[in-house]
Amino acid sequence: MQVQVVYSGRNYDAADGVPQQLTLPDGCSVDEALQVLRGLLPSGKLLAESCLLAVSGTHLGTVRKHRAHQLQAGDELLLIAPVAGG
Hints:
The chain is α+β, with helices and mostly antiparallel strands. The chain is 13% helix and 28% strand. The protein is built from one helix and five strands; from the N terminus they run ββαβββ. It has one helix at residues 30-40, and strands at 2-8, 21-23, 52-55, 58-62, 76-80. The radius of gyration is 12 Å and the shape is globular. It starts with a strand and ends in a 6-residue tail after the last strand.
């Protein structure tokens, strides 16, 4: 199945070279998709544990602590890094 991956906030630069679409096995969980993404990141880059995580508009929590969710073909996996400033 195909899943769209979107990075936003200060984490977007860590995604250089990571595809915007992932091909995953049917029935793949969010945790399994995050593991695949971690393996595709350039050396030395990490997924920030504080990134907000949403699937197709439904907020699940953060990369560190989120509700379990099974992905479906065509879902959008959104990672939003918190941004601070003034």
